[in-house]
Amino acid sequence: MSMSVRKWTKTIRAGVKRGQRRALKPVTSQQAALIQMQQVQLRLQYQQMLAADGDLPGYQDVGFRVFSDVDEDGILLYLLTLAGTDSKRLVDIGAAGVAASNSANLIVNQGWSGLLIDADSESVAAAGADYQSLGVMPPDMVNAWVTAENVNQLITEHGSNGAIDLLSIDIDGNDYWVWKAIETITPRIVVIEYQDILGPERSVTIPYDPDFSKSDYTENATDNNYVGASLRAMVKLGTAKGYRLVAINAYGFNAFFVREDVACDTLPQIPVEAGFRHPWNEYGMRERWPLVSHLPWVEV
Question: Is the model's pTM score more than 0.70?
Answer without folding.
Answer: yes
